[in-house]
Write a structure and sequence with these properties.
Elements: H1 17-25, H2 35-47, H3 56-61, E1 69-75, H4 87-98, E2 101-108, E3 111-117, H5 131-141
Antiparallel strand pairs: 1-3, 2-3
Helix pairs in contact: 2-4
Length: about 140
């Protein structure tokens, strides 16, 4: 039994790793979330107000066993913008909160690939900046 089966909700109370692990348990053969997979599943649960709101096929195609990098392809109906919806802002805030690197790239027309990377401390700053640190750095970089 993995750590994920003991997790009931993400940091903000939405279904994440626990739900994802139960879903993977039904696969043939059953699959396991890595420790990093637990973090990513919880982040996605917080991002989408429950991980189950993502397309189940997209969730099952993700390599949840990977310990350093996990990608999911999602349909973008405009929610990853900065005005009408707040998914882009929430993704940035959550990546800082969960202390992992998040990248977005086009997967195809109307689809985005969200990739989550475990920060490699050998080649990166010793820790991912908190949201407060990122805001402070942003505010300090603007010329008055």
């Amino acid at each position: 039994m993995t750590t994920a089966t003991h997790v009931t909700n993400s940091r903000h109370g939405y279904s994440g790793a626990g739900w994802m692990q139960r879903t993977l348990d039904y696969q043939k053969p059953p699959r396991q979330l890595s420790e990093f997979g637990v973090i990513v599943a919880d982040l996605l649960g917080d991002l989408n107000y429950g991980i189950y709101h993502f397309d189940s096929g997209a969730l099952l195609r993700a390599e949840w066993e990977n310990t350093r990098r996990i990608s999911i392809v999602v349909r973008d109906a405009g929610q990853f913008g900065t005005h009408d919806f707040n998914a882009l802002t929430r993704l940035v805030f959550l990546a800082h909160e969960y202390q992992i690197k998040a990248t977005i790239e086009a997967a195809s027309s109307s689809y985005l690939r969200l990739t989550f990377h475990k920060v490699n401390e050998m080649f990166s700053p010793p820790k991912h900046p908190t949201l407060q640190e990122a805001v402070y750095k942003f505010e300090g970089s603007r010329a008055e």
